[in-house]
Write a structure and sequence with these properties.
- By secondary structure, this protein is an alpha/beta fold.
- The protein has two domains: 161 residues, Alpha-Beta Barrel (TIM Barrel), CATH 3.20.20; 115 residues, no CATH class.
- Helix content is 43%, strand content 17%.
- The chain has an eight-stranded parallel beta barrel with strand order 1-2-5-6-7-8-9-12, surrounded by six helices. A two-stranded parallel sheet has the order 3-4.
- The longest helix has 20 residues.
- The radius of gyration is 19 Å and the shape is globular.
- Bound molecules: zinc ion (ZN).
- The site of zinc ion has 4 residues, from loops.
- It holds the Pfam family AP_endonuc_2.
- This is Xylose isomerase-like TIM barrel domain-containing protein.
- It comes from Thermoproteota archaeon.
Length: 311
């Protein structure tokens, strides 16, 4: 299994602002020194267009880096010996009733894939969008139609990620349906799955059930799930609230690593923990190598627990 990290935020505030190549190189080198091999570049705040309007800047949005900047990032990655992935903009919403927003969503994925191709990136991953009051089965046709249009034209392998929030599109069932219908592969975020199911991943048995479900519906797990995300997570009645450090939630990340390594599952495991540079990457590395790891299970309580107790 290749270990990676949710990496450099490559957006820019203006066309003339240069990227900080020194910082990018140093991130790649730090990652490599820990034993990590994949840097999933963050394009999540990126907006389409040549300039940011004041309103966009206020929202914290950024511009995409240029193709030549991406080529340079690709060169640096090659020199250091790491691979590149990329996370699509959070503005992607394939379930929007607004046709313009859906076509802009395709624009984001095209922009992402072009940049990843320039950097010789190995995959891109995207969320699907928001339900906006509809049910998943009601937006399925529209999401499949939009995604189908883009999948044939991308130069880089595009993956769909399961959601941690219940108001977003992307239950495990939904992404497996997409994989079955369109042949698109999955980026499985284990922490999202734990949050979406409000505490569903607590034991090795829970992990095995997920692996079995994917294998029975699609085929070999690592063929259909080439990339996974992992972190701790805080959740409530409506799913994900925020990502946490690995040791700071009741998500049993160690059970995930144990089942994956013992089953000989390959693929890329991206650490999305806010503590990824402060111990969590090393912790994952140790666990993958089968070294002794002290697992601290914080008794995080979900909102449902409180409701059940009538507090
Ligand atoms: Zn994720």
């Amino acid at each position: 299994m290749k270990l990676g990290v949710s990496g450099f935020n490559v957006g820019k505030r203006s066309r003339i602002e240069p990227l900080d190549y020194l910082a990018i190189r140093s991130e790649f080198e730090t990652l490599k020194s820990i034993g990590g091999l994949v840097d999933e570049l963050i394009f999540t705040e990126c907006a389409l267009g040549e300039e940011l309007t004041e309103e966009m800047a206020k929202k914290g949005l950024l511009l995409y880096p240029t193709i030549s900047e991406m080529k340079r990032i690709g060169q640096i990655a090659k020199e250091v010996g790491v691979e590149i992935g990329g996370h699509a903009s959070f503005l992607v919403n394939f379930a929007s009733p607004n046709i313009k927003k859906r076509s802009a969503s395709r624009g984001h994925l095209t922009a992402l894939c072009k940049r990843l191709a320039a950097a010789k990136g190995v995959y891109g991953v995207t969320h699907l969008g928001f339900l906006g009051g509809y049910k998943e089965e009601e937006v399925k046709a529209i999401v499949e139609d939009e995604l189908g249009k883009i999948l044939n034209s991308t130069e880089v392998q595009l993956l769909v990620e399961n959601s941690g929030k219940r108001k977003a599109v992307g239950s495990l069932q939904f992404v497996v349906d997409l994989a079955e219908d369109l042949g698109v592969k999955i980026c499985l975020d284990w922490a999202h799955l734990h949050a979406y199911t409000r505490g569903g991943i607590r034991s090795e048995g829970d992990v095995v059930k997920v692996v079995d479900l994917i294998e029975s519906r699609l085929g070999r797990f690592d063929e259909w799930v080439p990339v996974m995300h992992i972190s701790g997570i805080k959740y409530g009645a409506s799913g994900e609230i925020e990502h946490l450090g690995l040791q700071e939630s009741d998500f049993n990340w160690y059970a995930v690593i144990k089942v994956l390594t013992e089953s000989g599952i390959n693929g890329i495991l991206i650490c999305e923990s806010p503590k990824r540079w402060n111990g969590d990457l090393e912790l994952l590395k140790k666990a993958i190598l089968g070294e002794e790891v002290k697992v601290r299970k914080t008794a995080q309580r979900s909102i449902m627990d409180w409701i059940k107790e009538g507090k």
